[in-house]
Amino acid sequence: MSRRKIAVLGATGSVGQSTLDLVAAAPEQFEVVALTAASNVEQLSKDARRFGANLAVIANETLLPELREQLQGTNIQAAAGSSALAEAAAGEAEWVMAAIVGCAGLEPVMAAVEAGKTVALANKEALVTAGHLMTEAATRSGATLLPVDSEHNAIFQCLAGQDREMVARLILTASGGPFRDWSALAMARVTPAQAVAHPNWSMGAKISVDSATMMNKGLELIEAHYLFGVPADRIDIVVHPQSVIHSLVEYEDGSMLAQLGPSDMRVPIAHTLAWPRRMHTAVERLDLLAVARLDFEAPDEQRFPALRLAREALAAGGAATVVLNAANEIAVETFLGGRIHFADIAVTVEAALANMSDPIPQSIADVVELDARARHAATQSLAETVS
Ligand SMILES: NC(=O)c1ccc[n+]([C@@H]2O[C@H](COP(=O)([O-])OP(=O)(O)OC[C@H]3O[C@@H](n4cnc5c(N)ncnc54)[C@H](OP(=O)(O)O)[C@@H]3O)[C@@H](O)[C@H]2O)c1
Fold it and tell me: Which of 369, 365, 355, 370 is nearest to 319 (CA)?
């Protein structure tokens, strides 16, 4: 059997490294053809050499000379900038891992989708900002979208081979993050270090803060709506602190199907890597006797207003999810820089949505332009808050 040619966009991040970890354990199944990063030249060049990639792309163009130097004496092509990212996505790979964080991943993901690739989609912000454009492009090109987020991957598995007409609702589980049982007062003053210390999952900084505010679950609600074509009023969120059940589908006959597994992103990533088959992984198995019990609670939208904001943005449609995402990315970045309080993240997003008066984006170029405008507005409003 020939090896599956793969590209990893965002190879130096948490999801990217987990993907390469699985590939390293199964070299007879996969051939790495392209890897990308934003600025981590050292890790990118190390992995490009290790996996014998054909192309290594650094998004930050000023770092191209350094990348070239690191790859001297190899046949690996070094490239930089947005057109090179698109080339990595749409080039010789058959399977593309979309693991760039934030809306910055949108254009490369779309390049892969338009080229008809099998796209393992971790970059949820791309779907949040351009969900309908992306699913329409996939239908046109014949691309396959495989969800990597553990919740959506679980739902994807629970829908396989089932009667889609008989889906009653989707249930997304949420760990509740590190502040699940904290009061609003205590949460208002948490530090970035506390916010990135997730109780169950090891992830990049941005998604860890999103988990702490529960904006992550709000983004996932929007993501689920676009991926599975289910209206928001039939997508529920349930807090499940053990993170053992990754999500569920309820059918009209009263059956509920769930997917369970350890809290290790290598499990859903492996599902997409081997899809439609399965592959062996060395992850620690789930020990049901050690887990012993599973708890469920309703989410608290008073203490976690991001959930409400995401639902409102999806209901408003059009430009609102782009503005929600952009304001959130800027606010999280500012919080991680220690310049605003944790509670200011949701306040910033709410203000951005309240001030929004943008037309519905009709193309990816419209989304990119709107994203830039919304970032600028959020940055300005935060500058006033900080000063
Ligand atoms: N981590 C998880 O467990 C997890 C689970 C579910 C979904 N996701 C989603 O997967 C995506 C990646 O998350 P992560 O936790 O792996 O993030 P991460 O650890 O922060 O890694 C982000 C990756 O994107 C690259 N990158 C950042 N900004 C970029 C830009 N402007 N242009 C091009 N590349 C850029 C980074 O390169 P440098 O290293 O050079 O900065 C890095 O390779 C996010 O959308 C997240 O929501 C993650």
Answer: 370
Q: Where are the domains of the chain?
A: 4-147, 149-302, 317-387
Choice from 63, 100, 150, 375 to test ligand 1 binding pocket (greatest atom count within 8 A of CB): 100
By the 8 A CB rule, do 98 and 117 touch?
A: no
Per CATH, domain 4-147 is 3.40.50.720: yes
The closest residue, in CA terms, to atom 24 on ligand 1 is 100
Residues in the chain: 387
Any atom of ligand 1 within 6 Å of the Cβ of 204: yes
Reported as a pLDDT band with limits 50, 70 and 90, residue 146 is very high
232 and 224 in contact (C-beta within 8 Å)?
no
Tokens of 8: 């990893």
Q: Kindly report the pTM of this predicted structure.
A: 0.97
Find out whether the beta carbon of 38 lies less than 6 Å from any atom of ligand 1. Answer: yes
Q: Which atom of ligand 1 is the closest one to the Cα of 10?
A: 43
Q: What is the pLDDT of residues 346-356, one digit of tens each?
A: 999 999 999 98
| Pocket lining: 13 vs ligand 1, CB cutoff 6 Å | yes
Going from the Cα of 207 to the center of ligand 1, the distance in angstroms, rounded, reads 9
CATH number of the domain located at residue range(s) 317-387 in this protein: 1.10.1740.10
Q: How far is the CA of 383 from the centre of ligand 1 (A)?
A: 26
For residue 28, is pLDDT > 80?
yes
- pLDDT above 70: residue 170: yes
Judge if the beta carbon of residue 15 lies within 6 A of ligand 1.
Answer: yes
* Ligand 1 and 198: CB distance under 6 A: no
